[in-house]
Amino acid sequence: MSSGLASPYKGVFFDLDGTLADTAPDLVAATNQLLIARNLAPKQYAVLRPCASAGARGLIGGAFGIDPEHPDFISLRDEFFKNYEKALYINSVLFEGMDHVLKQLDDAKLPWGIVTNKSERFTNPLTDLMGLRQRAASTVSGDTTPYSKPHPEPILHAARVANIDPSRSLYVGDDIRDIVAGKAAGMKTIAAAYGYCGCEEPPEAWGADYLVRHPKELLEIIFPQ
């Protein structure tokens, strides 16, 4: 049965980490394991949380102060992946209010999808365990196509799989790359300021069409009165 809610949009697509789900607790734990294994003090959660939007690159950079060109980066990244793969759904949860948002979308029969830079190796088991992939019209990871965000192709691919016109869709993300990719795909964009948001420009400077500070505010944009 339809909820009676009407939307000018034909679909809504979400980033995963920091937008749909608060996965930082498990990502930070996997990062701190790297430090502990080297007899280094673990970083405070509040220090590493903003780095989670940039994945392994951001978290390893935040923990060790190195970039991907550093000779130790690849080995640290591979070890991080092993740590995370073993414990990717311990303390990860949907953001408060997000379950209600998704339920409203489902009730209104408005398709929604996931577009993340996380690799399928982690995206698929995590979204299965969280009960998301079974409900999503499409789930696209960072290695599903030859490109990752900020390139628009992953978002365009998600729209094709869901059979949704990108120009009549929304893309929601907590990183400037999400907004760049969403705009390049022809979608209206929403900056999720409640998410991790990186360590660079604030979300107000990303040029998104909309900005929300809590998931519940998404409903006002998706279903305007």
TrEMBL record:
<dbReference type="InterPro" id="IPR023214">
    <property type="entry name" value="HAD_sf"/>
</dbReference>
<keyword id="KW-0378">Hydrolase</keyword>
<dbReference type="GO" id="GO:0008967">
    <property type="term" value="F:phosphoglycolate phosphatase activity"/>
</dbReference>
<keyword id="KW-0460">Magnesium</keyword>
<dbReference type="GO" id="GO:0005829">
    <property type="term" value="C:cytosol"/>
</dbReference>
<dbReference type="InterPro" id="IPR036412">
    <property type="entry name" value="HAD-like_sf"/>
</dbReference>
<dbReference type="InterPro" id="IPR050155">
    <property type="entry name" value="HAD-like_hydrolase_sf"/>
</dbReference>
<keyword id="KW-0119">Carbohydrate metabolism</keyword>
<dbReference type="Pfam" id="PF13419">
    <property type="entry name" value="HAD_2"/>
</dbReference>
<dbReference type="InterPro" id="IPR006439">
    <property type="entry name" value="HAD-SF_hydro_IA"/>
</dbReference>
<dbReference type="InterPro" id="IPR041492">
    <property type="entry name" value="HAD_2"/>
</dbReference>
<dbReference type="InterPro" id="IPR023198">
    <property type="entry name" value="PGP-like_dom2"/>
</dbReference>
<dbReference type="GO" id="GO:0006281">
    <property type="term" value="P:DNA repair"/>
</dbReference>
<protein>
    <submittedName>
        <fullName>Phosphoglycolate phosphatase</fullName>
    </submittedName>
</protein>
<keyword id="KW-0479">Metal-binding</keyword>
<dbReference type="GO" id="GO:0046872">
    <property type="term" value="F:metal ion binding"/>
</dbReference>
